[in-house]
């Protein structure tokens, strides 16, 4: 996929606006059944001896708020960004991605980064080793510019979250994938200085953090959540020293193992976690 667009310094943060009327964010099943998605199953054998599909995601409760926690391990998974089909426009939805990609090879996928009104990233974006958007260091309003913001990136089995300032100063080689978003939720083990304990802003939100074992923790709330509570979950429960906010209100998850396919307002960049065979951490 090749796009020819340059840095867009102060475009409207479409991802952070309320969902258009008539397009509520919904949690749906792609098997057509009613009701919320089933809890993430563990691998097990049925009475017939067949093995159920193992899910990389689990449903949990943190401070009375339901969350879905999806774990990507370098031993088991590959991480990549996917904005749209080769030569085409951005997918703008997980449903469109699911129609273009074979679900059997995908552990899960999630929106990952803020974007303009066309669905193109407003910050650093690398897909398949090709940089489609340069690092955005401009000042501005909105969550993206709530310094420090940061970058989730990686090459091969090495994945990281760094603040934009840290990335600019210390990362010299272009990664295989990368997406810039903001704000950082946790920086060097401390909550973002401008995030309150449990602020009034409550939305369905998602983020990513990488632990000391190099595993990437993707979290999406299944109900409205504050920045502070999401950040504390990363710091206190997952022991992640650097975590990045990916977005809110438009946040969604595709988990083929549980037939979960979230729909709602249009999205932009998508992170895809692919299976690469079973092995131990």
UniProtKB/TrEMBL annotation:
<protein>
    <submittedName>
        <fullName>Phosphodiester glycosidase family protein</fullName>
    </submittedName>
</protein>
<feature type="region of interest" description="Disordered">
    <location>
        <begin position="20"/>
        <end position="50"/>
    </location>
</feature>
<feature type="domain" description="Phosphodiester glycosidase">
    <location>
        <begin position="105"/>
        <end position="251"/>
    </location>
</feature>
<dbReference type="InterPro" id="IPR018711">
    <property type="entry name" value="NAGPA"/>
</dbReference>
<dbReference type="GO" id="GO:0016798">
    <property type="term" value="F:hydrolase activity, acting on glycosyl bonds"/>
</dbReference>
<keyword id="KW-0326">Glycosidase</keyword>
<dbReference type="Pfam" id="PF09992">
    <property type="entry name" value="NAGPA"/>
</dbReference>
<keyword id="KW-0378">Hydrolase</keyword>
């Amino acid at each position: 996929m090749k796009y020819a667009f340059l840095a867009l310094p102060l475009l409207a943060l479409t991802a952070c606006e309320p969902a258009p009327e008539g397009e509520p964010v919904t949690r749906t099943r792609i098997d057509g059944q009613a009701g919320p998605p089933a809890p993430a199953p563990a691998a097990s054998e049925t009475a017939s001896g067949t093995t159920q599909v193992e899910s990389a995601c689990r449903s949990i409760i943190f401070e009375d708020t339901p969350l879905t926690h999806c774990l990507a391990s370098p031993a088991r998974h590959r991480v990549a960004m996917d904005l749209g089909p080769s030569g085409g426009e951005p997918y703008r939805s997980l449903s469109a991605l699911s129609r273009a990609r074979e679900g059997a090879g995908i552990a899960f996928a999630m929106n990952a980064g803020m974007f303009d009104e066309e669905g193109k990233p407003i910050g650093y974006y690398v897909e398949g080793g090709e940089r489609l958007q340069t690092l955005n260091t401009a000042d501005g309003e909105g969550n993206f510019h709530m310094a420090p913001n940061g970058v989730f990136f990686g090459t091969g089995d090495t994945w990281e979250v760094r603040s934009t300032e840290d990335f600019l100063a210390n990362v010299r080689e272009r990664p295989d994938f990368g997406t810039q978003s903001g704000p950082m939720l946790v920086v060097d083990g401390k909550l973002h200085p401008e995030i309150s304990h449990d602020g009034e802003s409550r939305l369905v939100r998602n983020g990513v953090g990488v632990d000391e074992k190099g595993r990437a923790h993707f979290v999406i709330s299944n109900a409205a959540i504050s920045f502070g509570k999401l950040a504390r979950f990363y710091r206190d429960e997952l022991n992640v020293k650097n975590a990045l906010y990916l977005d809110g209100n438009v946040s969604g998850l595709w988990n083929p193992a549980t037939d979960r396919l979230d729909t709602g307002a249009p999205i932009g960049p998508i992170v895809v976690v692919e299976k690469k065979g079973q092995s131990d951490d």
